[in-house]
Amino acid sequence: MTHHQITRSFLLILLGSMLAACGFAGGKLTLDFSAQQIQEAIAPKFPAENCPLPLTCIKLQNPKVTLVDGSDRLTMSFDTGVSLLGQPTTGTAVVSA
Prior knowledge:
Elements: H1 3-20, E1 22-25, E2 28-31, H2 35-42, E3 48-53, E4 56-67, E5 74-84, E6 87-96
C-alpha cells in the first residue's frame, strides 16, 4: 500500500466515522464519537509501511487513540520502526491535533 493510499484511506475512515456520529445542536455541528470508535475504524489499516526514499522505510503499528474529557484534542500514538540505509531503529510517534 502506497503512502497516498494509506493517507487517503485513513482520512476517509476518519471522515466517515465523524459523519456517522454527527448531530446538530443549536445551529452548531457537533461530533460525538469515542476513542474506541476511532480506534476500531483505523485499526485495520495498521501496520502501515512507507518507503518514501531509496533505502528509507517507516513502519507505523499499534495505534492508540486518546481523547481527554473536556478537551477538543485528539492524540494518536504509534510504535514506529525506521530503517535508514539499512540501520533500523524503533521508537514512538505521537500526534496531537
